[in-house]
Structure formats: structure tokens, C-alpha cells
């Protein structure tokens, strides 16, 4: 089965720890602090690779994990950064946060990349904390945890033109003669299990991307056959080319075929019917083809029909010109017909901290504070002395915690519990 929607766990590398070390040199009796910083953890990154057309590579990878950063070393040496994990995906891949459904990235351009999980920052080594007050700090920071999240990866084919129609009508054959794509072609239904893309050159300098989509059948919009998962690919095509087997090799009536497919498209999304549709009357070499196409034209006098024998590349050049013209018209309209999934990328890492702050009053003058974001910082700190506590308090203020508490009614002198520590809120 073609995989076009997968859920995975992504884990960026943790930052390396900063270390505590002191210089020990001849002639330097009291060596200064020299513990180096930890290296940053690697990030999990998704990048477009135009050679890929499916998400199959991701199928057996339930966990995407980037390398951890390395711990700092003596002599103020930085730990090495963890390597990023770069995952190559096809054009048209959409990545969402599975829990919030927020769009992390919508990869619609060649070469586009997006950071899906950010690597943790490295912790600072003790030499960074040396000050006039404390010339020999004996503490260092832990590295920050790499981001960890569950993601949903979806592939939505990005093609200008989509070939639709019943199975075995010759869609793949058509794509194979107008482009360099090599889709599988056979005389049994559902030969094509996943969309194939091909770059088509019209011959007058214009070109476009054509998608050969798996065959549709009646009730496809309700999930029958390969079902709705491919109808969503069709949503992104600017022009639809409806291929009909005029030779009626499968003993169906081609005119009925045409109506059934249109009906399925309409059931799935009524807007699809507003899109330009070009009809290809294929297999014109068949016995009944001439009669059938005559009936078709009588019934639909306004529809432009292109008669072809895709098998031997006959009748296709006029079709390509027509597609080119229709696309030009669509572009001039400037309307975005593709599915509305390019919401702004709302993924944030450092902004909007207050959103996850929670404060709860337990008793008079006693509060409990919670925050996932602060937890990440909290884990980085060893409360070995007053200095680190002060730094933590400073961090809280910088992140807007003081203001948040004040807004929520915490008063000067109240006690606030956070994790396993208690502190007094001093509103100064
Ligand atoms: N006689 C004749 N046979 C054709 C023509 N075009 C395609 N075929 C044959 O029809 C059969 C199906 O062709 P495909 O291109 O695989 O059809 P498809 O629409 O991609 O089918 P699915 O992938 O199953 O949806 C193959 O055996 C082709 O050789 C044509 O113009 N004339
Ligand atoms: Mg096919």
C-alpha cells in the first residue's frame, strides 16, 4: 500500500553539558576555571529532494533522532556539536505537530528545508561564570534537552495537471509518452498505486508537471478502491485531464464512466468541478471507439475532446498545447486553487512563552506554578549555591514570569511552589 500519511517521533539531540574544571599549570598556583561549554545537539531537519516521489523511506522509521551534543572539555574547549539528521522528502510534503495539528512545514519549493525538532543548546562551562565576586565557580550548566515531538508527515502531490479516470484507461501510458517518467503500465486495474510525476515539455518553451494518479472508481469519495487519499492529491492540481477509455475495453459505457468520475470528484469537493477539465478520448484504435466518441460529443457539445492513441503517441501534441493554454489562464487569474493547507507556519520555539504558564492558588498566600518551557531551563541548572538560584530567578523574570504572577494576583511576600522548590515572590 502506498504510504502518504505517517506519524513519527522526532527527537533532536540534547545539548552537551558544560563542565567544571580548573587550570593546573606550573607557575600558576591558583588556576582559573577552565571547564568548556557543551556542544549543541543536532536538529531534525526535513529537506526537499525532487528525486523522491513517495514517503516510503519513512515507513519503517518510527523514530527520527539527531545526535546529542558532546560535553565540554577542560582548557575551555567546546564539546563537539551533534550532527543534524536530515530527512529527504518529496516536494509537496506537509509536516504537522500530531498533538496540536500545527503546521511545522509545508515543503513546496525545490531545496526548501525546515527544522522539525530543534537541538538543545549546550550548557556553559564553569569558566563562563567567573566574575569578580566568584573567581572560581564550581558549577556548570547541563545541556538543554533536544526538542521531542510527535509529527504527522503527509504527502500532497504538487502537480499543475492531474490525470484522472477509471483504472486501465491509459493514464500512465499517457504520462510515459509525454514525459521521461517511467510509470508501471499493465492491463489490470490499479496498476498505479501511488502518484507518478513527470515534467512535460510542450515544445514551445513551456513546461509543466503532470501527475498520473491512481484510478478512481464509483464510491471513491467514500473510500472505495484507493479512495479519498488520492482525491486529496487531485485537489492540488490546477488543471484536470479526464482520461476515458473510448474503446470500452472493460465493457463499461465510456459516457457513464465520465459521469461517475465527475460525480466522485464533486462529492469529494464541489470546487473541483470549477477547475478547468480537459477530456481525453483514449484508445481510439479500438473497435467501438469512433461510435462512442460520436455519442460523447453529441451529449456534451461544449466539451473539448482530444482523441488519442496513447499507446503509439498519437494525438497528444494538441492536448499539450491546450493544457499549456489552460495553465496560463489559471496563472493569470492568480487564484490559488490548491488545497488551503499553507497556513502560516506557526511553529515556535522561543516566542510566546506565557502560553504555557499556569498558576494555581493553593491557599492564602500560597501558589503553585507550572510551565513546560521553564522545566527545560530548570533541568539545566544545578542549585548548588545562591548564585545559580539568582540566575534562575533572573531567567524567570526575563521570560515574563514575574509579570505573569503579578497579573494573576500573586502578591509581594507570597510563597510560590515550583517543582521541588519554594520561593518567595518579591515584587520590586
Ligand atoms: N489499445 C490501446 N491500449 C492502450 C492505449 N493506451 C493504453 N493502453 C493499454 O491499456 C492498459 C492500461 O494502461 P495504463 O496506462 O496502465 O492504464 P492506467 O489508466 O494508468 O491504469 P491504472 O494505473 O490501473 O489506473 C495497458 O495494457 C496499456 O497498454 C491505447 O491508446 N490503445
Ligand atoms: Mg496507471
Topology:
Elements: E1 5-11, E2 44-48, E3 63-65, E4 85-89, E5 93-97, E6 103-107, E7 113-117, E8 148-155, E9 161-164, H1 171-178, E10 196-201, E11 207-212, H2 228-234, E12 239-245, H3 254-268, E13 277-282, H4 289-299, E14 305-307, H5 316-333, E15 358-363, E16 366-370, H6 372-378, H7 386-398, H8 401-407, E17 415-418, E18 421-424
Parallel strand pairs: 1-3, 2-4, 9-11, 9-12, 12-13, 13-14, 16-17
Antiparallel strand pairs: 1-8, 2-7, 5-6, 5-8, 10-11, 15-16, 17-18
The chain binds guanosine-5'-triphosphate and magnesium ion.
Magnesium ion is lined by residues 171-172, 183, 191-192, 212.
Architecture overview:
With 428 residues, the protein is of the alpha/beta class. The chain folds into three domains: 1-155, Spo0b-associated Gtp-binding Protein, Chain: A (Distorted Sandwich), CATH 2.70.210; 161-333, P-loop containing nucleotide triphosphate hydrolases (Rossmann fold, 3-Layer(aba) Sandwich); 353-424, GTP-binding protein OBG, C-terminal domain (GMP Synthetase, Chain A, domain 3). Helices cover 20% and strands 22% of the residues. It contains eight helices and 18 strands. The protein has helices at residues 171-178, 228-234, 254-268, 289-299, 316-333, 372-378, 386-398, 401-407, and strands spanning 5-11, 44-48, 63-65, 85-89, 93-97, 103-107, 113-117, 148-155, 161-164, 196-201, 207-212, 239-245, 277-282, 305-307, 358-363, 366-370, 415-418, 421-424. A six-stranded mixed sheet has the order 10-11-9-12-13-14, with helices on both faces. It has a five-stranded mixed sheet with strand order 3-1-8-5-6, with no helix packed on it. A four-stranded mixed sheet has the order 15-16-17-18. The N and C termini lie far apart (63 Å). Mean pLDDT is 84; it is low at 335-352. Bound molecules: guanosine-5'-triphosphate and magnesium ion. Magnesium ion binds at residues 171-172, 183, 191-192, 212.
